[in-house]
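Can't paste images in this forum, so I'm doing it all in text. The chain is below; anyone willing to post the predicted structure tokens underneath?
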Amino acid sequence: MPPEIPFAALTSPADVAEAAHWLYGAPPPHDAGVVHPTSVWNPGDGLLRTLRITSETPTSAMDRFALDLARARADGILTTGKILREEPGLTLEYRSPPAVAGALATWRERVLGRHMAPVGVVLTRTGDLDLGHPCLHAGNPIVVMTTHAGAERLLSATLGTDLEVVSHDAPSATLAIDYLRRTWNAATVSVEAGPSTSRSLYAPEPFVDELLLTTFGGESLPAPTVGPPLLDVATIEALFPQAGPAVVADEPSGRWLFQRRLR
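Text version of the structure:
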């Protein structure tokens, strides 16, 4: 996009639309199925490794916008108890500066016709949650999906709160997405989960319709910032043959590559 409109300073729905078009080569659809925004690092061996959020992890205003754009499009957001434990300050609100967040919210309402905040589903097999975590109290409706034992552990602690708890014999990411579709009429679900949960949506059959792939292009990273692998490049290319243009951008933290891939 034109350099006079930096990603950290978008102020209007028109700015959001222009930024989205510049980043992915086309306006995002209103209803997109299952969307997976993820940030990875390719050390050169073709295996994409996820980025752990630490004080040493490189940051990108464009990557932050990419995640917020997925949130703005979503009717539901899937995350996990493990993510909440690893990110004690996480919420499902926009991470961009206030003016950009306001532009995204207005774009969501005026362009997509979505007037309610996306509902969040926290997937946890154990029910081990800090019930004071800000993600559970930041304004989004929140549902915890867990096992029967996990639900029994949580139900007494959540009495009198707005937190909803649902249980299954074997809760999974696909069950959580189906729940969002059936119960909340979620046409677009954004997946913000770690690599093990995310990989379950790619095999044995792909459950993800749209992959928003952000790749950090630095030659090296501090060891604590490098997470487990997501998938290899060849598998991604096979699963998502429809690829938008690869946008390369240099930011203070290094070089980043952005691409939207469809099945």
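Helices lie at 13-24, 61-73, 81-86, 98-110, 148-158, 173-184, 195-199, 233-239. The chain has one domain: 7-262.
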